[in-house]
Amino acid sequence: MVMVIEDAYVMESLSENGLLPDGCESVFLSGTLIRGWGNPNSDLNITIITREPWTSPGAECSFVALDPPTVIGEKLHVEGRRWDIEYWQDSQVEQAMAKLSHEAFMGDQAVWKLLTEEEFAFLEGIPYAVAVSGPEWLDNRRRQQRESAYTAILVSRSLDHADGFAEEADGACEAGDLDSAVLAARSAFGHAVDALLAAHGEFGHSPKCRARRFREARPSLLAFDRYWEVETMRTFDPARPAGWVREVISLCRRISMEVEV
What we know:
By secondary structure, this protein is of the alpha+beta class. It has 2 domains: about 5-150, Beta Polymerase, domain 2 (2-Layer Sandwich); about 150-260. Helix content is about 50%, strand content about 15%. It is built from 11 helices and 6 strands. The chain has helices at about 5-15, 30-35, 90-100, 100-105, 115-125, 135-145, 150-175, 180-200, 210-215, 225-230, 240-260, and strands at about 25-30, 45-50, 60-65, 70-80, 80-90, 130-135. The chain has a 6-stranded mixed β-sheet with strand order 3-4-5-2-1-6. The longest helix is centred in the middle third of the chain and has 25 residues, at about 150-175. The two termini are about 35 Å apart. This is Polymerase nucleotidyl transferase domain-containing protein.
């Protein structure tokens, strides 16, 4: 489901509800609706880039490892659809982008590991976002992200998680804790696939869209049918869980060895 929405309609709706700051740098749309993956119940994600902090009595705060350390959120219902609105200061975006530099990625302090989930979610939307105001700002940030170590960071992060969960699954299996081994193996596989997809330019943190991203990326290393077989645990036998765990761990480690950072 691709949502078609007029730029003027978005700006007017925000303005009429007192949610459009003066002199904002950019306003852009992202999320599953913009990618054409939405449904009638999907929210519309709107990001507003400001120069000064946004304040509102009913606003919500999300914490980030930036200065200032909060991102402000608002919710608005328009014609039966919820709009999730986030206000990021341009200075916050600049700080987040600095964590993506090649120097930060290769440095001893691993500054990129300070990126929070909120920051990753914001960065994830930039490649396919659609500007309704300030397209130059978005184009510049998109280019900055493309020239950074963003892809390498996402691949490394997912591989670290995959390896950690694979070790947990292996250890739990050895200890006879097969319930924990199964859950850890599932997590390891999800992160391994995320690393594979990130290496092919498909970034995402939500498991619900992983199959969509897989179909877009079409990695040669792993066929969709095989991916879906493991994702849905089609071959899992409750009477022999250890065999499935070992198989999944082996697959995760093969992916980890062949994905390039």
